[in-house]
Amino acid sequence: MMYLLNVILCSALFLLVYTLLLKDKTMYHFNRFYLLTASLLSLLIPLLNLEQKNQTLPPLQTVTYTIFQNQESTPPVQMLTAEQPFWSSNNTQMLVLGIYILISSLLLLRFFKNLYGIHSKIRRNQKLPFRNMSLVLLPAEETPHTFFSFIFLNKQAYQRGQIEEQVLQHEFAHARQAHSADIIWIELLQVFLWFNPLILFYRRAIQLNHEFLADQSVLEIHHNVTDYQQLLLQQVIPSDSLNLTSHFNFSLTKKRLIMMTKNTPALKLWLSKLSVVPVLAVAILLFCNAAPKKLESVDQLRTSSGKLQIREKTSPAPMIQFFRFPATKQGVSPEKLAQYDAIVKKYAADENSLPMVNKNISKADREQLEQIFKQMSKEQQNKQNIVFSMPGKPLRKVKPTAEQLQNWQDAKTYGLWIDEKKVSNSALSGRQPEEFSQVMVSKLTSKALHHNEYKYQVDLMTEDYYEKYLQNHQKNKNKAMMLYSMSRPATK
Fold first, then answer.
1. What is the distance, to the nearest Å, from the Cα of residue 373 to the centroid of all Cα atoms in its chain?
2. Which residue ranges traverse the bilayer (predicted)?
3. Which of 120, 187, 207, 306 has the CB geometry, 3.0–4.6 Å to 69, for a possible disulfide?
């Protein structure tokens, strides 16, 4: 939604600049380029990612779970979980997407219908060559209009010599300068960006500028402005031409007649053109996607210690993610589920709490849990507090910055672990980024806060420890991991 809003605001800025600084200037070719480029840049600029530097904490938005194995566990990293409402944001997004697709499909159908109508006109009617273009002679009385290299004229008027040379020159200018390509572009924008009301203003401005260009071409050959203006006034009749064409009497306004006699000084033209440069810079600063500088994205599992490594994400993850772990379509019986719950319940402090993370599970119970879990369906697996998963890829090297090492010495905000051991924040004093090969910052929930001493947990690996981690990961890459999920209420 933010992207769509930025598209509208960016297009509004460019249109405002055109209205205030460019519209009244006799630089029609530049204005054509500006309007087309502005309509394109309005789509592209909000997609640009300008990275904000010196951002210590990456935003974490994922639901995770903690690994525990038959060894002493390190402090768990827990993230916020949320109840799934009956009508979730995903349902709303699907509804909005459905409405968008429906309206765009109807507009696209209209677009192709208009194209087919033009094609039918060309195919059914007589055509004559004209200056590398084609004259299409129509039996109906229509205003002269143009579509790419086809100029549409009333057949009787043309055969009787009633089509003035200025009219033909005007339509020839539309065809020679390929104004139909601009109209096709803006028509497609309207199909897919119909929610942006400014597209209609862009279309109007582009088509009016086409008329200025065509009028300019006529007056370069026929220099009598008054006679040409009188001819235009005589041609004011209702037009039945399709909206994809350029027709002779489009927007015959006072403005168009005035622009025929206007002459803008060269210095003013150059200043107007140069004014576009700072506007472009402002648009990029205001509407680009400014993202905080992130630590390098890493995978989730750290198998050497049995502790979950959180992967940074920019969008919420599924409640539980499984890596290549088998499941069945039919699932297990209620009796098997009860047996699974009974084993899990043995490792809870009481009937109303979740299993203890720091309590060892016997080898026999673990094997039995894994066997039953493997026979469950995906739906059944997603409902368990204790789940199994295969390890992901090893964590890639991520080196902190010197500024981050300085910031993490604040014990009120950060808890610090180096090589899986809790250490004092002052241990980073005098340390250099080159000494570390892996770093992860995790935001803790209220359940994981250590008496409100800090809000974030920082895990660092030295170079030697990281090499040992890689070796251990390679050794255990085919072993299933037991995970402790926070995605559902405690077993009762």
1. 38
2. 6-21, 33-50, 94-112, 269-287
3. 306
Query: What pLDDT does 291 receive?
Result: 55
What value does the CA radius of gyration of the chain take, rounded to a whole number of Å? 34
Compute, in degrees rounded to 10, the torsion defined by CA atoms 484, 488, 489, 492: -70
Report residue 429: phi and psi, to 5°.
-60, 125
Nearby residues of 151 by Cβ (< 8 Å), 6 or more positions away: 130, 133, 134, 135, 136, 144, 145, 168, 171, 172, 175
Domain ranges of the chain: 2-55+86-287, 394-476
Spatial distance between the Cα atoms of 298 and 311, rounded to a whole number of angstroms: 5
Higher pLDDT, 243 or 9: 9
pLDDT of residue 435: 94
The 3 state secondary structure assigned to the chain is CHHHHHHHHHHHHHHHHHHHHHCCCCCHHHHHHHHHHHHHHHHHHHHCEEEECCCCCCCCCCCCEEECCCCCCCCCCCCCCCCCCCCCHHHHHHHHHHHHHHHHHHHHHHHHHHHHHHHHHHHHCEEEEECCEEEEEECCCCCCEEECCEEEEEHHHHHCCCCCHHHHHHHHHHHHCCHHHHHHHHHHHHHHCCCCCHHHHHHHHHHHHHHHHHHHHHHHHCCCHHHHHHHHHHCCCCCCCCCCCEECCCCCCHHHHHHCCCCCCHHHHHHHHHCHHHHHHHHHHHHCEEEECCCCCCCCEECCCCEECCCCCCCCCCCCCCCCCCCCCCCCCHHHHHHHHHHHHCCECCCCCCECCCCCCCHHHHHHHHHHHHHCCHHHHCCCCEEEECCCCCCCCCCCCHHHHHHCCCCCCEEEEECCEEECHHHHCCCCHHHEEEEEEEECCCCCCCCCCCCEEEEEEEHHHHHHHHHHHHHCCCCCEEEEECCCCCCC
**289-292 and 49-52 strand pairing:** parallel
The whole-number pLDDT of residue 353 equals 52
The neighbouring-strand residues paired with 290 are 50
